[in-house]
């Protein structure tokens, strides 16, 4: 009996670890390999704070969580600059350093002997000093940790995390602050792992470096993968299976040393087999949207989509923009002035610098020189997400939809000023966020109606047709609520019928006072849609005029239109 | 011997669940330039990749010289005389022009013919001769495209498949590249299958044109007819 | 000053060891883009193979080294063929391959521990020579580490630049799709780099066996330091891996001047952090736009 209770306690501890790790890997797509290091921080914090400073519960736990969360947040700072393989190697290095500290800083950590005699938890004079007594505490801890992770994953913040996982630059382009998101998710993931560490220390009354090695991180990884990335329940299942399975094998008699090794072999094999046969894990990721209620068509206020703005005012302007890549001049002395209510076309041969100009105007590339102003405010040098928030949004030629998210989620995530993007509000203003989500659902529906995709709201973006994807790109851009829209080839590859659907949409936007700029190759489209056209070549505007003026310009005709 | 050197029947291809090319019949006759037109997303690249074997067709047949070749490895196609010039950077950017050309002849059985082949290509694109030692990635866009075409010609292919050779080039260069393609066709008798968006420059050199829309062939015939067909031209 | 010279030589020696590990790992990584964690336990397996050949079969050390290289090459190719290639064919993401590699890492490491036990293995009766040059001290094995690095990387460099297979590897590293287009069988090339990269790791493995003996867990540090050397030096170039490895060895060793021995390995990781933050393309990496 004692033995079964012990296993259940371990399931709880690893459940917390797997859930915390899933936030990073599954939701945020951040492949960090230092989860066992965070686990170690929690365990050593409790050991050191209770043994050396005599601090009582829950002070040790809270301090441990805070310290670990802080260290997790620090790891996130390099993670903003680096990704993929680099993040793997850096976090692996952190893992190695933490073990080095645990083994070498003998005064603090007891070195290879570890720290013994950590006091058991004591609740109202009732010592939790055996598995049976400890289990309720472990279950409560798991429940709280799971709730925290669940709340985070299913909030607007969690939605933004998944968007970031799908495509970082697109997440920035809808106003998400990647640094904030990475810091927050690392802090939470690390903090939750520290809770597990503290429990471990209290339960075994001992911590030693050997419990927190790289094998341990791989063990947790196996739980997350087995259960299913992006599914928190899956992580619990994964933890339960991988803790219980080797125990069942104990009934096969093997020398203990071989038995331990063979467990690790089984985890490794299981990891490979599950990746081959069911890479999404036992419980696959589900859309977080399903629980949202259906919206009644009558209480839509689609009107706010088109609340008219004054026309013919200068909104966005770029002044003498320059950009070089190595020896290649991409943009040189480019000037552009966009006005509200008008549609500006950007044409020119491939390589003329059109997309680079967009990247400069929206902060995705830094300028070598020049200034950008939006409604009189200097926005030069602002980060992309701040430029979007200021009111200038852009789309990408290669779409960059959040492919594993539904059309509705693609739009929802782009809506501006979401309190639910802030983790503080997620936990401390639940009612506000609930109301806001209802409003946002209505707004998202209005956007989908506007682009004619309402019937596809619950379809994942990857299952849409090419034309629908393009419409969704427009919808996602509109949802940002920006005033200036920079469209990078929104219409290429569409046939006449679809064009006929999109034209009025763009027109309507301009009529409502939005500022539109379009990169386009199709001259018919330019003729039909644009008020002003910039002809770009060699990185600057060679000619500016109405479509007719430009197409009748003999010099340009030979060069481009012919 | 039939007139066709490369043929597809009912070819379909796509990525994952997404079917992009549906039921396409194409016939490339010996010595002609078959131009396939279509917009972004029309499935041109997917079609070419499926023909060449970079992508396994989901249905249909590809025959080369009367022999079925659908789904076999690109290496086998190269060995039997088909060459492919992909869209964009069809070169090795970190290697020299000379190494690139040599690699173009990677499957050649008779290596002693490498210098001779290289001379033929230098005659076609003299700029490559001047820049033999330059690293591929540092060439201009036009030069890179010429190098890519040169590589494809190294092993004397009977068929060259070109995927949008005009992309990313300034208009005067587009014209230059199209003229080179016409010359290759004329002087070596190479059959050419080319996809393009740039109707203006590619149409004049084509023997025949097929138009692809949303993954299906909607026109196949002489270029002159296409120009007369107002509805079709409106597509571009 | 004598201390400095000794530390410098030590740095060169350890750096050469790291560099050679980095060259093997980096060749595989650059060509196949696979983060091959199982490189670690294959390195371990090579050390045990050398031990088996020398101690059990009684073969001379150089022969044992060749035997170890053959074992490592076979293991490397099998790993590619039966683990990575199916994932590649299924178009799995690079993360999936990486996780699978970690899975194999654990499997192999523990398999070796079960077969050979967790205690260390040394070649019975092997004694290495000791050299004293002025105030500087080093052993024959350490000299071997430096020579092995210089000779093997030079050979590899010539092989890549001059031979048909070498050029196929360079082409695949540059652009795998383009390599297929000109008729290179990239699967064969991948098998080849797994064979070469793994065989290369067998040489430092054997030298470590001679120097310190073999333990089942020695592979983690090997793959880790190889990975770090490649990232520090810059992915995709032989020069980068060598420079990265030497830089790590030097910094580690010269750091000892002020820092206690047990922290030696942590110094390298500080270098890693700095490089990744300040020069993410690595010391010798090209910035590819």
SSE inventory with pairings:
The complex is a heterotrimer of chains A (562), B (236) and C (289).
Chain A: H1 2-27, H2 35-51, H3 59-81, H4 85-104, H5 106-109, E1 115-116, E2 122-123, E3 126-127, H6 131-153, H7 156-166, H8 168-173, H9 178-204, E4 206-207, H10 214-227, H11 232-249, H12 256-277, E5 314-325, E6 328-339, E7 343-347, H13 354-361, E8 369-374, E9 377-378, H14 384-390, E10 392-394, H15 407-412, H16 423-428, H17 430-451, H18 466-479, E11 484-488, H19 496-511, E12 515-519, H20 523-529, E13 532-537, E14 540-545, H21 547-551, H22 554-561
Parallel strand pairs in A: 7-12, 7-13, 10-11, 11-12
Antiparallel strand pairs in A: 1-4, 2-3, 5-6, 5-8, 8-9, 13-14
Helix pairs in contact in A: 1-6, 1-9, 1-10, 1-11, 2-3, 2-4, 2-9, 3-9, 6-9, 7-9, 10-11, 10-12, 17-18
Chain B: E1 4-15, E2 18-29, E3 33-37, H1 44-52, E4 59-64, E5 67-68, H2 74-79, E6 82-85, H3 97-104, H4 114-124, H5 126-130, H6 141-153, E7 159-163, H7 171-188, E8 191-196, H8 199-202, E9 208-213, E10 216-221, H9 223-228, H10 230-234
Chain C: H1 2-32, H2 39-56, H3 61-89, H4 94-116, E1 130-133, E2 136-139, H5 140-162, H6 164-174, H7 176-181, H8 186-212, H9 218-233, H10 238-255, H11 264-278
Helix pairs in contact in C: 1-5, 1-8, 1-9, 1-10, 2-3, 2-4, 2-8, 2-9, 3-4, 3-8, 5-6, 5-8, 6-8, 9-10, 9-11, 10-11
Q: What descriptors fit this protein?
A:
heterotrimer; B: 236 residues; alpha/beta; four-stranded antiparallel sheet; 10 strands; C: mainly alpha; globular
